[in-house]
Design goal:
With 225 residues, the protein is mostly helical. It has a domain of 97 residues: Serine Threonine Protein Phosphatase 5, Tetratricopeptide repeat (Alpha Horseshoe). The chain is built from twelve helices and no strands. The longest helix is centred in the N-terminal third of the chain and has 16 residues.
């Protein structure tokens, strides 16, 4: 009996700590053959499985695991769990789930600024530009001094560039430059905006922007020299 109990505990630990591995598959088979349930017994088992699935980039499975965690152990849930749920849902392109996770994170939690960044990027990559603008705007209001705030605007602009949406790219990058003129994170935006103007043959404007770029950032960042 003692050996069987030790084996059961071992296989459960492997199943929850190392999901999506060959060892976890073996542990799952052993547990099921012994008539054991794969349902988490407590918050710790459920939370660690969700975290490990997210770390393994098994986003759909992680999203399901986070939902199960929150439904089974609502009183034990932390802001970090909702952030993990948001990240998993965002990576799985589940916007409604990501929105619910974002809303569940208290405004006072340190995870909230990261959640703003993740949600802004999700909207931008989904080409929901108005939602991306509004979320980035609220992030600026609530976290004006966070280094993640200019990054959210810039990365939304780069998502627009990848989507070949020049107007949204210009909006996000130029707004970042206006709102965060001294942020080192805006170095690339200054250069990208100058290049946009160059491509449209607005050489006076592109030259002005490039000179401003050199004056503002060159002493601190030489990435675009």
């Amino acid at each position: 009996m003692g050996d069987a109990d030790t084996a059961r505990k071992y296989y459960r630990k492997v199943y929850f700590l190392a999901p999506m591995t060959a060892s976890a598959k073996e542990a799952e088979a052993k547990l099921l053959s012994a008539g054991q349930t794969l349902t988490p017994n407590d918050y710790e088992e459920a939370a660690v499985r969700a975290e490990k699935l997210l770390a393994a980039r098994s986003f759909a499975e992680a999203s399901t695991a986070y939902s199960d965690l929150i439904n089974r152990f609502p009183m034990a849930i932390r802001a970090s769990d909702h952030l993990g749920r948001l990240r998993a849902a965002a990576a799985a392109n589940n916007i409604s789930e990501a929105q619910a996770a974002f809303s569940a994170i208290p405004a006072s939690a340190k995870e909230k600024e990261i959640a703003f960044y993740e949600l802004t990027l999700l909207y931008a990559r989904a080409k929901q530009w108005q939602a991306a603008r509004e979320t980035a705007g609220k992030m600026k209001e609530q976290f004006p001094d966070s280094a993640l705030t200019p990054k959210a605007w810039l990365d939304a602009g780069y998502a627009a560039r990848d989507a070949k949406n020049k107007s949204e790219e210009s909006y996000f990058l130029q707004t970042a430059l206006i709102n965060f003129p001294n942020a080192i994170e805006a170095t690339s935006a200054q250069f990208e905006t100058a290049w946009q103007e160059h491509e449209t043959r607005n050489f006076d404007r592109s030259s002005k922007l490039l000179i401003e770029h050199l004056a503002r950032y060159a002493a601190r960042d030489t990435s675009f020299r």
